[in-house]
TrEMBL record, chain A:
Native source species: Acanthoscelides obtectus
Role, per record: Electron carrier protein. The oxidized form of the cytochrome c heme group can accept an electron from the heme group of the cytochrome c1 subunit of cytochrome reductase. Cytochrome c then transfers this electron to the cytochrome oxidase complex, the final protein carrier in the mitochondrial electron-transport chain.
Localization (cell): Mitochondrion inner membrane
Annotated protein name in UniProt: Cytochrome c1, heme protein, mitochondrial
Source species, domain of life: Eukaryota
Cytochrome c domain location: 89-259
SUPFAM superfamilies: Cytochrome c (SSF46626), Cytochrome c1 subunit of cytochrome bc1 complex (Ubiquinol-cytochrome c reductase), transmembrane anchor (SSF81496)
Subunit record text: Component of the ubiquinol-cytochrome c oxidoreductase (cytochrome b-c1 complex, complex III, CIII), a multisubunit enzyme composed of 11 subunits. The complex is composed of 3 respiratory subunits cytochrome b, cytochrome c1 and Rieske protein UQCRFS1, 2 core protein subunits UQCRC1/QCR1 and UQCRC2/QCR2, and 6 low-molecular weight protein subunits UQCRH/QCR6, UQCRB/QCR7, UQCRQ/QCR8, UQCR10/QCR9, UQCR11/QCR10 and subunit 9, the cleavage product of Rieske protein UQCRFS1.
Family statement drawn from the similarity comment of this UniProt entry: Belongs to the cytochrome c family.
GO cellular component: mitochondrial inner membrane
From TrEMBL, chain B:
Subcellular location: Mitochondrion inner membrane
GO BP term (any one): mitochondrial electron transport, ubiquinol to cytochrome c
GO cellular component: mitochondrial inner membrane; respiratory chain complex III
Pfam families with a match to the protein in the record: UCR_UQCRX_QCR9
Source organism, top-level taxon: Eukaryota
Name of the molecule in the record: Complex III subunit 9
Keywords: Electron transport, Membrane, Mitochondrion, Mitochondrion inner membrane, Respiratory chain, Transmembrane, Transmembrane helix, Transport
Leader peptide range in chain numbering: none
Organism: Acanthoscelides obtectus (Bean weevil)
Family note: Belongs to the UQCR10/QCR9 family.
């Protein structure tokens, strides 16, 4: 095997590969025979084509006039950084906003009161929150359903018994479940914030049906949810001034938490992973150098057989 | 006897002591590593975590 490879490649296998220099390459070029005029012409055509392509791309990027929708601006959230946790005081205020405003129409079926413990509320507080509402339970020994005060293990109550009832109460539009809404919409919490604060008068030519409102951030512009947040729409228990933008910011942060309850742990894990893996990388590199050092310092000598 | 030699003779020479050393060092390494990263994370997010605000709601 080795002998036949050697016969095919001769000594070339052992030598460093022959790399032609730039000068050698240019002597191989077929454009050398071209006249000056031809070179100039082809060069101009090439430049024009490239420039036109770049211009088209830039125009497409900047205008995007084809869709009737405003993309939400990016905000600097206090949890935007690579290692930044959620602001739990804000999550707590966001829960108050959800409970007092959004819960009138939107369900949040995948969050239970026990999830609040150690995130926004103490255990006693979460229990008190749960007990505030009556939950349908049963059946008891008589086979009847009964109502009881909520427990930590109960999920947030839904405002409507089913989707049809929700549609009937909202002009046929279904208020989506908010548990995972931040993950379910492009733009995430930026979108929620922009949507809640972005209501304005419909521009001329936009027709809104009964029960519809204009919101440029909502795809299509006509949304069946009325503006929900106004200055002083409610009061915070921690005394933060309840401006519309403060309410929107807090509810967006809260919805970010409900959609990604693992958010903080994930960022902490990232930090640990970077630490551990840079350590392992360093070890791996060192071992590779060590194992190769014997190979790289070895001298190979070719001695033809003496006749 | 140099330090390296002592370590070799006491720990690395026998498989049993070597395995024990691996387990023990993994234990201590993990404890300190977790402590360091957790403290760093809390320092970066000073005032934002539940840990930092819970005193307001507990007696």
């Amino acid at each position: 095997m080795a002998a036949s490879v050697g016969r095919i490649c001769r000594a070339g296998l052992l030598k460093s590969p022959h790399v032609p220099t730039i000068n050698q390459f240019s002597s191989l070029s077929t454009t050398r025979e071209w006249t000056k005029g031809r070179k100039a012409l082809l060069g101009t055509i090439g430049m024009l084509a490239g420039g036109a392509g770049a211009l088209l791309l830039a125009l497409d990027r900047s205008v995007r006039a084809s869709d009737l929708e405003l993309h939400p601006p990016k905000h600097v959230w206090s949890h935007s950084g690579m290692f930044s946790s959620l602001d739990h005081a804000s999550v707590r205020r966001g829960y108050e906003v959800y409970k007092q405003v959004c819960a009138a129409c939107h369900s949040m079926r995948f969050i239970a009161y026990r999830n609040l413990v150690g995130v926004t509320h103490t255990e006693e507080e979460a229990k008190a929150e749960a007990e505030e509402q009556m939950v349908l339970d049963g059946p008891n020994e008589q086979g009847e359903m009964f109502k009881r005060p909520g427990k930590l293990s109960d999920y947030f109550p839904s405002p409507y018994p089913n989707e049809e009832a929700a549609r009937a109460a909202n002009n046929g539009a279904y208020p989506p479940d908010l548990s995972y809404i931040v993950s379910a919409r492009h733009g995430g919490e930026d979108y929620i914030f922009a949507l809640l604060t972005g209501y304005c008068d419909a521009p001329a030519g936009v027709v809104l049906r009964e029960g519809q409102y204009f919101n440029p951030y909502f795809p299509g512009g006509a949304i069946s949810m009325a503006q929900a947040l106004y200055n002083e729409a409610m009061e915070y228990t921690d005394g933060t001034p309840a401006t519309a933008s403060q309410l929107a910011k807090d509810i967006s942060t809260f919805l970010k938490w409900t959609a990604e309850p693992e958010h903080d742990d994930r960022k902490k894990m990232l930090m640990k992973a970077i630490g551990i893996f840079s350590f392992l990388m360093a070890i791996t590199y060192y071992i590779k150098r060590m194992k190769f050092s014997t190979l790289k310092t070895r001298k190979i000598e070719f001695r033809p057989k003496e006749k | 006897m140099g330090f390296n030699e002592t370590v070799y003779n006491l720990i690395f020479k026998r498989t049993s002591t070597m395995a024990l050393a691996c387990v023990a060092s993994a234990f201590f390494f993990e404890r300190t590593f977790d402590l360091v990263t957790e403290n760093l994370f809390e320092k970066i997010n000073e005032g934002k975590l539940w840990k930092h605000i819970k005193d307001k709601y507990q007696q």
